[in-house]
Protein 1
Amino acid sequence: MRPEHFETFLEWLDSDRARAAEKYEMIRQSLIQIFIWKKCFDAESLADETLDRVMLNVPGLRDTYKGNPSAYIHSVAKKLLAEQMSVRSVQLETPVPENPMKADIKTEKMSDCLDRCLANLSPYSRDLILDYYSEDHSKKVSHRKDLAEKLGMSVGQLRVRMYRIRKTLEACIQACMGPESSV
């Protein structure tokens, strides 16, 4: 996602930049809470994915959509949740491998791929993503706020940057693992 998408999105939420930022954070927190209630594994990532999808559509929506942007955003979250439920049902139907050693080999290969892909990142990006995910659940919110402040950006901008780095890593790991497996 490009920065101009984020800017356009904020303008769509509210013409006042400060109020738009507040609305963004409130919407994001409500999305996270919804995904937690629905027992989704990574509620933050799903909230970010929802917002990314909406941000890409805002240029076309601004002139045609009438109503509260929050309602539209929550409808996109509902569709993403349906996609996740579909993926979960497919995963539940997938049989457990008969040979546990095969699963261990796959885990080891994925770990090797992660190491290789992290090494391919710029030192800045590698250090940033490792720092971003370094804290456990109880400390991660305050740690990420501190990290954003240290970098001179908002928490939302930091999340966008992490999303981009994660996507790069996921693509690299998937290529490394080969076509027979997906991340």
Note: Helices lie at 3-13, 17-37, 43-64, 69-93, 100-120, 123-132, 137-151, 155-177.
Protein 2
Amino acid sequence: MKQSTSQALYTYWNNVRGERLAPRRFDIEPSQLGTVLAETFILECDGTQPATFRLAGTKICENIGRELRGTRFVDLFGDAGRAQVSGLMEDLRLQGAVQVLEAKALLDTQRAAQFEILIMPLVHNGTGVSRMLGSISALDPPHWLGSERLPALDLVRHEHIWPEGRPHALADKFRQRPALIPELASARLVRINRRSFRILDGGLQKE
């Protein structure tokens, strides 16, 4: 990651994630994102339709030259890169692979704008990824950026980042639970202040 926006957002997401493969949507606090909020977006993805923008920061829409909310993420790209980007999104949704993309918009022979795009998984409802958090920030933004609508982006390069160090199915990560030993399975469950405890009957035996 080259951009300070990408680095700051990834650090925040990773800290909120903790030991989970992905944080939940409502774990993300926009007030904690500070100056990177304007370059941040949230996508909705259910596995049946391409991911669409639910939210897109003001700086992203200004740089791209149009409102993005409700549009498909892959439609930022031209025909040549759209299928590849769609595949990368599936890797993220199914295996938790954080994606770092570099893309370029070419207006004419004299003008081009290059962007770094970061995309990370979020869990909204259930156990699978149904939201994505990310950012789009310009690399060395030219002075004219934001003055007109950009054409479709060309994918220049991409990189996978595995937060857990290796690829594996998200569903397995979320659904697996360590089996209880027999004594704990029969213990009483007590909840105090949103914490759960299992109480084992026992004590000193009388002689």
Note: The longest strand covers residues 112-123.
